[in-house]
Structure formats: structure tokens, C-alpha cells
Write a structure and sequence with these properties.
The chain is of the alpha/beta class and 229 residues long. Helices cover 30% and strands 22% of the residues.
Length: 229
């Protein structure tokens, strides 16, 4: 691939065994978003959207994408849905721990296992998280900087992307964006919870990609001014 490119990933469906109906996603909207963005060009970079379907470890899906590419992506922006969150959330940190909310169909439910046994305690995002957050807000889309990707599948994806980049010396910058529920999901629950249209979410990710390209060095030197309790 001669054109510089940005990998956009979404997660597969999950939550069949979840007790809470709002955590069941037969179709994950983040994968729909990745498919929508696939093939677009942003800031001179080709967007390559891929759905990550994995069973025990995100590397099952992510490593082959990197293996098959002629050149490493300039940026990896992984995305996932965060039920109940009202804004686009740009994640700062991925922890080397898996403590899942529910088991998969085979009963697998890590309860404190590391993402990588030989990995560091945590990785910080290497994309400009403050520049991305500010750029999305400036376009009128609610966005916050989040200090934790939690300890579930999304955190494992973020950690895995950063770990593969570090271990392979790829030079790619990587980060994770949590997205709100779609209106259709909230409507199906008969809920009054927050939601955001998928088209607006896709625009937020386009803006994030452009901001990552425009800020290849140090991030904005401003306080995050976020409070998470």
C-alpha cells in the first residue's frame, strides 16, 4: 500500500450471556462504523476499516491485519461502544488487566488476568488525545477525554494494538475511541438513555483521524480539565 493509511477498527457482536439487556449487541455499531469509513480518504490517508472478530484475545484478529499489510499504518484508531455514555470518549490509558463483566458463550470470563503476561502494567495512547478531543468539540460533537478504557474487551483491544506496535517496532501511533449507543439500540430497549447517531459518530472518527495526522508530535499543552469519579 503506497498511500499512507489509517486503520479503523470496530468490535464484533458481544453480550449474549449478559444479564443486562443494554449490554447485548448482536451487531456491534462500532463495526458498522468501521465498514462505513473503509475506503475513505482523510488528510491524505486512506482509511481502512476492519471489524475485529476474536474469541480469547484481540491479537487473533488484529495481528493478521498488520501481518498482511505491505506497510504499517500511520495510525490505529480502535473504536467500541460504551453503553450509557453520552459523549465520544478519547481514551488515555490501557491497563494490562482483563476483568470482564460477563462470560462468553463458552463460559470464558477473565477475572484479573493480564492481556499480555510479559507486558507492561499499562500503555498510554500514542495519538494526540487532547488535540483529538478539542477538534471533535470544535465541530460541535460532544467529546471528553477519558482516563480509563476500563478492563473489558475494549481495553484489551487498545492494549493489544499498542503492544503489537511496540513489540514489532512499527512506528504506528495508536489509540481508542469509545462511542455512545446508537438511537436504534436505545429505542429497542425502551430506554431513556443517551445515544448518538452513527453518522455523527463516524464524523467524529474522521475528525479524530485528521487531528492525529495534523499533530504528529507533542499533544496540546493544555490541562485535560476532566473529572472522573
Amino acid at each position: 500500500m503506497s498511500q499512507p493509511w489509517i486503520l479503523i477498527t470496530g468490535n464484533g457482536g458481544f453480550g449474549d450471556t449478559a444479564e443486562r439487556a443494554d449490554l447485548r449487541y448482536p451487531v456491534n455499531p462500532s463495526s458498522e462504523l468501521a465498514a462505513e469509513l473503509d475506503g475513505e480518504t482523510v488528510a491524505g490517508h486512506l482509511l481502512v476499516g476492519r471489524s475485529l472478530a476474536w474469541h480469547r484475545h484481540p491479537a487473533e484478529a488484529l495481528a493478521p491485519i498488520l501481518d498482511e499489510a505491505a506497510t504499517p499504518p500511520a495510525v490505529i484508531l480502535s473504536t467500541g461502544v460504551f453503553s450509557g455514555r453520552s459523549t465520544v470518549s478519547i481514551e488515555r490509558l490501557a491497563a494490562n488487566v482483563q476483568d470482564f463483566q460477563f462470560a462468553d458463550d463458552d463460559g470464558y470470563r477473565p477475572a484479573g488476568d493480564p492481556v499480555y503476561a510479559d507486558g507492561p502494567t499499562a500503555y498510554l495512547a500514542t495519538v494526540p488525545i487532547k488535540a483529538i478531543t478539542h477538534a471533535i468539540r470544535e465541530r460541535g460533537i460532544p467529546a471528553l477525554l477519558s482516563n480509563s478504557a476500563s478492563t473489558h474487551g475494549c481495553n484489551a483491544v487498545m492494549y493489544t494494538a499498542l503492544h503489537l506496535v511496540a513489540e514489532r517496532g512499527l512506528g504506528s501511533r495508536a489509540g481508542f475511541i469509545h462511542l455512545p449507543d446508537t438511537p436504534g439500540h436505545v429505542a429497542s430497549l425502551g430506554s431513556n438513555g443517551p445515544s448518538m447517531d452513527l453518522r455523527l459518530q463516524a464524523e467524529a472518527v474522521r475528525i479524530a483521524a485528521a487531528a492525529a495526522v495534523a499533530n504528529p508530535g507533542a499533544d496540546l499543552d493544555v490541562p485535560a480539565n476532566e473529572w472522573e469519579w
